[in-house]
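Q: My labmate handed me this sequence with no annotations at all. I'd like to see what the chain might look like in three dimensions before we decide whether it's worth expressing. Could you predict it?
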Amino acid sequence: MGDDSEWMKLPVDQKCEHKLWKARLSGYEEALKIFQKVKDEKSPEWSKFLGLIKKFVTDSNAVVQLKGLEAALVYVENAHVAGKTTGEVVSGVVSKVFNQPKAKAKELGIEICLMYIEIEKGEAVQEELLKGLDNKNPKIIVACIETLRKALSEFGSKIILLKPIIKVLPKLFESREKAVRDEAKLIAVEIYRWIRDALRPPLQNINSVQLKELEEEWVKLPSGAPKPSRFLRSQQELEAKLEQQQSAGGDAEGGGDDGDEVPQIDAYELLEAVEILSKLPKDFYDKIEAKKWQERKEALEAVEVLVKNPKLEAGDYADLVKALKKVVGKDTNVMLVALAAKCLTGLAVGLRKKFGQYAGHVVPTILEKFKEKKPQVVQALQEAIDAIFLTTTLQNISEDILAVMDNKNPTIKQQTSLFIARSFRHCTASTLPKSLLKPFCAALLKHINDSAPEVRDAAFEALGTALKVVGEKAVNPFLADVDKLKLDKIKECSEKVELIHGKKAGLAADKKEVKPVPGRTAASGAAGDKDTKDISAPKPGPLKKAPATKPGGPPKKGKPAAQGGTGSTGTKNKKGLETKEIVEPELSIEVCEEKASAVLPAPCIQLLDSSNWKERLACMEEFQKAVELMDRTEMPCQALVRMLAKKPGWKETNFQVMQMKLHIVALIAQKGNFSKTSAQIVLDGLVDKIGDVKCGNNAKEALTAIAEACMLPWTAEQVMSMAFSQKNPKNQSETLNWLSNAIKEFGFSGLNVKAFISNVKTALAATNPAVRTSAITLLGVMYLYVGPSLRMFFEDEKPALLSQIDAEFEKMQGQNPPAPTRGISKHSTSGTDEGEDGDEPDDGGNDVVDLLPRTEISDKITSELVSKIGDKNWKIRKEGLDEVAGIINEAKFIQPNIGELPTALKGRLNDSNKILVQQTLNILQQLAVAMGPNIKQHVKNLGIPIITVLGDSKNNVRAAALATVNAWAEQTGMKEWLEGEDLSEELKKENPFLRQELLGWLAEKLPTLRSTPTDLILCVPHLYSCLEDRNGDVRKKAQDALPFFMMHLGYEKMAKATGKLKPTSKDQVLAMLEKAKANMPAKPAAPAKATSKPVGGSAPAKFQPTSAPVEDSVSGTIEPKPDPKKAKALGVSSKAKTAQGKKVPSKTTLKDDEDKSGPIFILVPNGKEQRMRDEKSLKVLKWNFTTPRDEYIEQLKTQMSSCVAKWLQDEMFHSDFQHHNKALAVMVDHLESEKEGVIGCLDLILKWLTLRFFDTNTSVLMKALEYLKLLFTLLSEEEYHLTENEASSFIPYLILKVGEPKDVIRKDVRAILNRMCLVYPASKMFPFIMEGTKSKNSKQRAECLEELGCLVESYGMNVCQPTPGKALKEIAIHIGDRDNAVRNAALNTIVTVYNVHGDQVFKLIGTLSEKDMSMLEERIKRSAKRPSAAPIKQVEEKPQRTQSMSSNANMLRKGPAEDMSSKLNQARSMSGHPEAAQMVRREFQLDLDEIENDNGTVRCEMPELVQHKLDDIFEPVLIPEPKIRAVSPHFDDMHSNTASTINFIISQVASGDINTSIQALTQIDEVLRQEDKAEAMSGHIDQFLIATFMQLRLIYNTHMADEKLEKDEIIKLYSCIIGNMISLFQIESLAREASTGVLKDLMHGLITLMLDSRIEDLEEGQQVIRSVNLLVVKVLEKSDQTNILSALLVLLQDSLLATASSPKFSELVMKCLWRMVRLLPDTINSINLDRILLDIHIFMKVFPKEKLKQCKSEFPIRTLKTLLHTLCKLKGPKILDHLTMIDNKNESELEAHLCRMMKHSMDQTGSKSDKETEKGASRIDEKSSKAKVNDFLAEIFKKIGSKENTKEGLAELYEYKKKYSDADIEPFLKNSSQFFQSYVERGLRVIEMEREGKGRIPTSTGISPQMEVTCVPPPTSTVSSIGNTNGEEVGPSVYLERLKILRQRCGLDNTKDDRPPLTSLLSKPAVPPVASSTDMLHSKLSQLRESREQHQHSDLDSNQTHPSGTMTTSSSSTANIDDLKKRLERIKSSRK
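A: Here is what I predict for the chain of 2032 residues:
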């Protein structure tokens, strides 16, 4: 027992796993006790045993297993977590329990399985049991079947899926084991009990004996519907209710349930589909066309056999249907007609809904074939058409049926009516809406008056059926004119009708009068499919009150109907009856007099025609009293109005009498039963008086009364035709005005647009403006009801008129038509239910669509055309398509019958030629617009194939297909697309393109629907497979679509559908479902739907004929028992309270209102900056999407929570659009008061507004745009500048909206874009808008192009990004666009550029196709504007760019004090002077000459200027003088303006903060990469290079040593630097500006970097070093060759001197020198040899030969020799002429060396007797021959004269004169101009002054700073002089340097040459004469520092660019300065 005692101590769960059976038994017993004790189903105790339950049931010991099973059963029953164990436990039960001999074990096993089903795990259990049926052990099979049978018997067929069981039944019946067969028989009987005869077809092939046995068993079953006896946990309440009911004796609910249950399983569902198309005889299509009828019969018989299969597989049956249709329609042999009809029946029955797409083709043919008399044919045709009807909807084939109704053949009429009657039986109140009933009733009413009795009877039957289906209330309005006899006949027929939907429809109809809920069904009947408003559309709204009305009465409006029963009482009804009597016979005048005298006092009649007006007036008063007292029934209206019309009648001259008369007419019309006959008598007179000043109003009142009596449509038509048949314009305009009002009062219902559009057109053409104005006003009112389609009638009007009409329409946009206040009673005979009322506008809407005159084009679709479209040659196919497009274009609006066109076009959708596919798609798009809502009947046969095209591999084809699908869906609504399996079949195809496009489309459309057809569930399995698709895009789209599927199907259904997935997939999908459940949007609410119609903002819901079937109402119909709770809930949901929204309303308590008082935006310090950092570092999602996904919305919500008031955020993120409107209104109110808050949250506000752009609701969009306009106005006033982050997350989405169809929205967006340019640089806007031109939406493309044109016009070419050339090429592409508006916009934009820029445009746009070029040239000719100077508005752009380039956020906020617009005006006011357009900073906005001449035109203050101490400046200074505009103006403008910005940015390059530096480098790189901007850098190169190598030094010394710094950052910085330099050194003109000292330091930095071993260790280090290598090569090649050679020599010298320097360094420098030597042959002529030789001279001085030889390496000496040797070789003896700069040549080692070399070369080449050679060999300081001197001087003067080398020339001349004082330069000067002479003299004097001022300086050291003042900028910079540090007097260069700093502060660019650096005070005496740029640093840095400060404080918007100076002469410096002083004094005194 020792063993025992051990396990006894173990805890229970360990006992259960023990290897001893006793221990386990004890464990199971204890566990059972624990399980029975634990009351809480969620107790943690359960989880302990989660993994053990399988062991409980699979225990190997039979005794222990029994106990385990007991425990497991209790566990499953009570544990919350038990569901997780389902799979493993049930499979354990199947394999280890069902094979046990003990019956008890099997029973427990079955119980456990049933318990799992009860806890909602039915599917998993069923799956395991079905797997068990494949087990080899018959015992297990029997037990599994038994378990399934018990489960079905207890839970019912709703829980246990029968289809999989029925599938395996035949196999079970074939089993060898009798036990299995017997059990199979039992389950078959059980299944039959639930689904009855649906089980027969699947079992028809089993053994006949077994079948017979089954039949016997089936007969014994009770006939009542079975009910489940056990319920799922979630249904247990229902169970309790059921028990209560049974105890009360009723089982209505059960009945209801069975109603639900019976159709649950359909035999069809249980069958396997058979594929028959491949089994058709090969020669079928030939045989069916054969001449012999026997062959045709054979072909048909073959088909008949195939179609007998009860379920056919979907496929393309188009050809087969076509062939059968042809037989039915054309075959002369009636036997074959009947046979073909049978085949069609078989197809329709086998395919069901999949046959729907062919129904439209076949129905008209069959109906017309009813002319056959033979009963067997008629019967076959009837069966066929009935079967076909079930595959489609009445809606889809209604057009075809109605077309046949007018046929003359009575048999056709009869059979069609009978078919309608049969069809009606299949309908319910909801599937037979008023809109559909109306045309049918109208057609049938004609038939009840037919001469043929059989036609009449059939019509009675059809009307009777309709009456039965939808109830009297819905049908009565249409039967108003039917006499009583016929009405009784219809009612009699109605009573006989047996509906297919039996009891349910009946119930709905019967209970309608009594209960609220079925009342709703009635409503749904009326509202029907077409009515897109929810049943409780905003106006009627009684449902909301339903629970409050009396129990017996329906919602309020229905009361009269309820009281009236069939409707025989109540005023409304009487009026309705009157409508019948309207046809009143015309009475003779005698009869009238007689009738009138009976009711009027005698004197009254006698005085009617008295000649005395007073008597007539008295008579009228009597008349009026009499009429007022008369009773309605006794009033003889016709007689009375006849009396009034009696002479003088309407010619009455006295206005008082006339007014009275008109008033009486109104009274009679209001009080009597006024008929159209009576109206005819007076209308003429009324119209005649309507324009009368005094009587007009009375006439209008009378007309309104008549309209109320005789219906507005009729009255309006009469009045209009009368008004326009007479000439009086006043009458015409007043008639139109009256009609405008009347329409508003009466509503639009029933008005015949066509009838008075012709009159309106006449009015529009009238000469009288009042008539035209009235007509346009009337059109505006009509637009409210009709919508944009109204415009189509007037497209051919003159443009001026059309623009007026458009303006009127625009006014009406966004408005809703007013509710009718008059004439409502007429619209329904027996009182309207609110559903019907809701439908009223729908009717109007449809009428409007129907009113458009539709052309029948089927006759134009000839068989030739169809064969053309199908031709083998693509060109002929294209011709065919072109023809079709032409036909549709011409017809504008077409009828739905388009013959064979659908099949022809369908074939083209998979054409191998993609161009034809696109053309077909375009045609289909046209077709949708042309056919309107009727296109829905083609959805199945043409719409679905378009979806297939979404799978095309070409992007543009997919885009076209998507546009087409959208165009169709806009017309049809989504129901047609979602019905049937077609869509799911498409989704099933494993084409990634198709899947992602289709899912994207569904994700867009589903959220807008209020309900969807149940077939949507069919797509779910494929959606799940898409979630796991290999393609990432497909997965993403599937995830996006998931919440929208769930929104319609519900989580339960979706989760249930995962049952069929593999376990791993299932878990993943369920996780996604959970996520989607959280994000699931609520269904859109009813009112919202009304405004978001695609057909146009103002057209309300009616305009989308079908958008959502009213699903809820259908479910309502099935509920036979009213449920007040439910009614209430429905009311709520229809009020637009969505699931998420429900909390909000309940919370609106007092507390809520208190909250609203505070600020709405809370300022969070640095909040915006933090958000930007987060986005940059990818901590949050970047705001970038095609449609906003939930995660974006959630993220925004989270970000807003900290800075937006809670209540406002609730409004902003509410699911109902009205709350968004409220939020916007609040934001507008707080805009001014909370400026800071708004700016602090600006990024969030803009992001939220982008979300609003994706809403479908127009009113929100309009509000949002309104807010944006105010917002950007505020921002520009506040001088705010948008950050990049704000711009990029907002502008692209705003640009999307510029393509909106509504003008008013487009205008707003354009206005906003315009205002944005004030807060964001136009040049940065440009790329965004350019991106917009790539949109698929042509409107957007056109608008964006126009906007680009405006930008160029306003801001000049600088806005074109990346370069004008690239931008214009992009724009020019659109000249070839297929859309006219886009083409025009592109042309206009380029013409704008042309006007600014002249012929250069053609160069920029590159090559265009001939056609495009000719269009452009033509347009330019037409614009015929001379190119003008660049626009002034450039002003506005520049400063912003300046600011936006600097990244200092604070500085951006403090913009300039002056407002933009005032600046602009200032610029304009000055534009009288050409130079004013080029802006200079404010202090320098002065032009001296101009000011002196003209005191006071230019307002200009100069405070800062006065403070400069002018006395300090000795040297002449350049005064910026105006200059005629340069050829390409924008370059010049840019330079000077951006100078200070560039200084500022360059200063940031050297920043210690890596990010700042990178940012600055990026900005410079941007400038350098754009050819047209790169020039801006000119003059800043040295400064930039200094900053760059400082940064390199900083990295080398500091950053690389810093452990904390990410090395990636450093690499990034290096890449930026190197990239920048490479860009710079590719632009030769800029590269040449680099001075020697700077190049020396740069090379030092680069070589040091190449040798940095730390870099090599980094990951990307090698790449950096390779880039540096490349850069060095670039520097060597592109720099100024003199400067770089000089720099390298100095660098080599330094490196050899420095002890610390590595030999590797010197080696690399020498390598560079060798490379330079290799380049020398090409560059020798551009090199200043004198300078190079001077450098070599200095080098040799520092390193004499002996010293060099001591070097470790022989390289330096070899390098030097190679260099000299190459120079000698290239220059020959002339080289000795270039030693001019060396002072004491005699001592120079260099000269000796050169002479030796020359000699050596001379010896080699042999003695040349050339004089030149001798001369070359001789010393130059000996007297040269005269010729040589002349050559030398000529060379010098040539240099002085050339623009580039002027300084160099002057310096050489000075040296020459100094050396050869007796040299005569006079001859060279006397031929030149006076100007040139004085220039040279002054130049020499300046050099002299400078050299002498500096004390002892080696001569000839380059050009003195003084010379900079001249404006002939040499590109080569020369070396500055060596400074002195001995405190001797300093030269003027110091002051020049100061001036330079001052000039820079004020934004004046220093002239564009490289100034020699200011080294005079800083350089060391020992240093050779190349100033190291470090020495320049102090001055540069102080400049930069000052420039930076200045940048922050100065007026950043400096508004004038500085013109580059012309060649100004500066006479002696003192004179110049004095002159300047004097002039400034004069100006100051004149200003005082």
